[in-house]
Known about the structure:
By secondary structure, the protein is of the alpha/beta class. The protein has one domain (about 5-190): Rossmann fold. The protein is about 35% helix and about 20% strand. It has seven helices and eight strands, in the order E-H-E-H-E-H-H-E-H-E-E-E-E-H-H. The strands form two sheets. Strands 1, 2, 3, 4, 5 and 6 form a six-stranded parallel β-sheet that branches. The radius of gyration is 16 Å and the shape is globular. Its cofactor is [4Fe-4S] cluster. Belongs to the SsuE family. Isf subfamily. This is FMN reductase. It comes from Natronococcus pandeyae.
Amino acid sequence: MTDVHVVALCGSLREESYTRIALEHVLDAAEAAGASTELLDLREFELPVFDADRDREDAGDAAMIAERIREADSIVLASPVYHGSYSSPLKTALDYSGFDEFADKTVGLLAVSGGAFPVPALEHMRSVCRALNAWVLPHEAAVPRSSAAFEDGSFVDSKLEERVATLGRRVVQYARIEPEPDSFESDHNVGAKGK
C-alpha cells in the first residue's frame, strides 16, 4: 500500500486545536501503514462562505482544496463538535467539492468534542459523504471530553489512542475497496452535479 495517498481536512480553526492533534495521530498511523499523507488545515486557506452563484475558481483557495482532495486515494474528515454537528469551515470546504472529489473514495471520520457526545457530528459527516457517493469506513473515531484526553500532545487513554490509530490504518487498508453501487442520497444530490 505504499502508493496510497491520504488527504485529511481539519475543520478546526483554533490555534490550540485538539482536533488537529487527534488528526495528526490518524495521519501518523496512516504513514506507518505505508501511505503518503497530506494535512489540509483549513485555517491556512482563504475559503469564503459557499455561494452557488460564484464559480469555485473565483472562491479563494476552494479550487486548490478540491484538486488536492481529488488527488487522494482516501480522505479523512476531522471536526470539532459545534452544537451537535461539525464545523462551518469543514462544511464550506465540502460545499465547494462534489462527485469528482468524493465519488467512490474511501472516507474516514473523526469528531472531537469538549463534551461527552460527539456521535451526531459523525452521523452528519457520514450523510454528506453518502450524498457524494463516497464509501465511508464503518470504523470511526470520536474523542469526547477533549480537554482531558491529551497531555503534551499525547493521548492519556491508550484505548482511545488505539481507536484513532485504527482509523489511520483503515483508510490505507480500504483505500482501494470496490465501492458499493451509487447511494440513494447521491442519486438525488443535484447540488453536487457539475462541481
